[in-house]
Every structure is written in structure tokens, then in C-alpha cells.
Design goal:
CATH superfamily: tt1808, chain A
Strand order of the largest sheet: 3-6-7-8-9-10
Largest sheet: 6 strands, mixed
Shape: globular
CATH architecture: Alpha-Beta Complex
Strand content: 25-35%
Order of helices and strands: HEEHEEEEEHEEEEEH
Structural class: alpha+beta
CATH class: Alpha Beta
Number of domains: 1
Number of strands: 12
Distance between the termini: 36 Å
Radius of gyration: 16 Å
CATH topology: tt1808, chain A
């Protein structure tokens, strides 16, 4: 939290693109723009990478005209952008970035608190379903039914259970297989 006496100069998405074009930021920098503030993202560890690869394979093998798989790709939200680990979005022209998604998944190895905070941003963007794959706790927290920036329905899934996405025609995700 920034003290009330400190001036904060919030950035826009266009400001960040300008900083990249000017060489101030590297185009491959792992940063998100949250409420106008640049936030570093954590490096991806092997378990995180493995879970994301499993999810990508699970959803990408489905040939759907209704949605496309985006991996660690920009999702524009109020006040900036996030880089969800996986997002299923409606097909867009190559020149557009999504402003919402049918499903967003974050894999958390050490970023559980930050990923819980992102629920507000995803709910505000009307993402109907947001999953946090918590590798340490060996569970998947599923957020559904966004209303006024919060999810009304939050359910935990553990080893031995499966999660079925609500808006995409995909096979259920067995939590034990996802967690490895």
C-alpha cells in the first residue's frame, strides 16, 4: 500500500508500450500493469512450467471455433493488463488483445497471495471462471459468478476430484493429473 502522502503517477497500457518502444523496458520483461502500477512477476519454476504444459496440452488439443488458448499472453483489464498463465478467449483478429476471457488459470507455486488478489481484477473484467492451481497446497480453487468485482462462488478441488469448465466444451480436468 502506498502512503497517502506520496504522489503516484499511474501508467497506461500505451505508456508501457511507449517505454518498450523507447528501450526503457525490454519487450520480454515479465511485468504486469496493475491499476496503473508496474508489478514484476515471479520466475517460473519447473513444477509451475510442468502444470502449465499439462493445461496447455489439455485445452489446445480441442479444436474449437468458439475459443482459443492463450499462454502467458496479455489480457487487458481496467487500469492495465495481466499475463495469465492460461486463458481461453473468444477468437480475435491478430491485431487485437482480449479484454476478457471465458476461463483464466493461474498456476501458483509461490505466488498464491498475488494470484488471490488477481481475482478482483478478473472478476471486474467479467471473466466468468478463474482457477488458481495451488501446487503447494495440492488443490485448485475455482472462482465463478463474478459480480461487482468479486466472485460469488468459490470452490476448492483436491486430489481425486475433477473440475469441469462451465463455458467451454472441454473434458473435465482431473486435479491429480494436473498436479502430477
Amino acid at each position: 500500500m502506498v502512503p497517502a502522502t506520496v504522489s503516484v503517477h499511474r501508467l497506461s497500457v500505451d505508456d508501457v508500450y511507449g517505454m518498450v518502444a523507447a528501450g526503457v523496458l525490454d519487450e520480454d520483461a515479465r511485468i504486469e500493469l496493475v491499476q496503473g502500477v508496474l508489478v514484476d512477476t515471479l520466475p517460473i519454476g519447473p513444477e509451475h512450467d510442468g502444470a502449465l504444459a499439462w493445461l496447455t496440452k489439455h485445452f489446445a488439443r480441442i479444436d474449437s471455433a468458439a475459443w482459443a488458448v492463450r499462454v502467458q499472453s496479455t489480457l487487458l483489464v481496467a487500469g492495465g493488463y495481466l499475463l495469465p498463465d492460461l486463458a481461453l478467449v473468444e477468437p480475435l483478429p491478430r491485431t487485437q488483445q482480449p479484454t476478457s476471457a471465458l476461463l483464466v488459470v493461474e498456476v501458483a507455486q509461490t505466488s498464491q497471495e498475488r494470484d488471490r488478489d488477481k481475482a478482483r481484477d478478473y472478476a471486474a473484467a467479467d471473466v466468468p471462471e478463474y482457477w488458481i492451481v495451488d501446487l503447494a497446497a495440492r488443490r485448485v480453487t475455482v472462482h465463478r459468478s463474478p459480480l461487482a468485482g468479486i466472485y460469488e462462488d468459490v470452490v476448492l478441488y483436491a486430489d481425486g476430484e475433477s473440475v469441469r469448465p462451465i463455458l467451454v466444451d472441454a473434458a473435465p480436468v482431473p486435479v491429480s493429473e494436473l498436479l502430477g
